[in-house]
Amino acid sequence: MKEIQYYLKDIDESQFAVFPENFVEGKEVAVFAKMNVASNNDGTSLKCDSRLELKQDDNMFIVSEIACKFAVTKESWEDVDEKKKMLPSGFIRHLTSIAIGTQRGIIIARTKESSIHKFILPPIDLTKVVKDDFVREISQN
Prior knowledge:
16% of the residues lie in helices and 43% in strands. It has one domain (6-130): SecB-like (Bacterial Protein-export protein SecB, Roll). By secondary structure, the chain is α+β, with helices and mostly antiparallel strands. It has 1 helix and 7 strands. The chain is elongated.
């Protein structure tokens, strides 16, 4: 396996809302996570979208949506066949881990002055979320 060369180039926060009136300290929290990974046509950029909804008894107390954008060298992609390139699932889990960690920090920073500040987003087992390699079609220009 070749070394994957990449760096984090941008973080966009598209949504953040907090509803402290819906949070009860010590009560069980349900975490709903949605992750999506996409690349541009030439494969030099990857975007990892992450949406988190934190609820207690169906009452949302935090919603957060971010996009982490990564630059990836063309040489880092592996050939699947003449029309497809691939990045392994382990690398994609690493990128989603960066996105979740970023989101965890945003939640801590944005709730500092509220009762929700004592809540820390628990670890998320990304092996259950990201199972497949990321494959993209090569555009024929």
